[in-house]
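## tool: complex_structure
## caller: assistant
## args:
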Amino acid sequence: QVQLKETGPGLVQPTQTLSITCTVSGFSLTSYYMQWVRQTPGKGLEWMGFIRSGGSTEYNSEFKSRLSISRDTSKNQVFLKMNSLKTEDTGVYYCAREGRRYFDYWGQGVMVTVSS
Amino acid sequence: EIVLTQSPTTMAASPGEKVTITCRASSSVSYMYWYQQKSGASPKPWIYETSKLASGVPDRFSGSGSGTSYSFTISSMETEDAATYYCHQWSSTPFTFGSGTKLEIK
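## result:
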């Protein structure tokens, strides 16, 4: 069955880089777009960006040049990297599969705290 | 950016009561989507393309609307419906979510 699981560092220092991995099973990354959404106390649910089935990406300009999404199809993994972290980036980060009609499967989320 | 404004922010309903949540978009969108989120869990797709129920969603839920005005209705509140509901648009980037409506049981 379809599963998504995010893994990440938990605690990141301000100004440092966040790296999160989304490991998927039950489907191919070459057939679906993969979305990243975060949930923060300050802004609620916030769309970050996606990687298309063909590998190209699109980002929310809110994150300017801080954000990068990539993947390794051989490992069934999608990666989120965001640099110059601030305390406001504290929150839960989700990967989600874009299905035919909606974001149909979501990972459990990974809590990230930005603090020194 | 299309801003989605949900109301109310919080509400409580008794079992059997009808519940309506509204979502207004700052610009016209093709469809509205709704997600349910319970505490500590990830969002679940609930209503898609304005009025269609996602897999497994009971038919006491419904959605309607067009353009900039959308609504989400529970015909008869049940205890298991207590959750936070978010509207969502992905007609144009950046995709956006409403701030959520926390629905509690009285």
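## assistant note: The mean pLDDT of chain A is 97. The interface with chain B takes residues 35, 37, 44-47, 58, 60-62, 94, 101-104, 106-109 of chain A (CB under 8 Å). Handing back to user.
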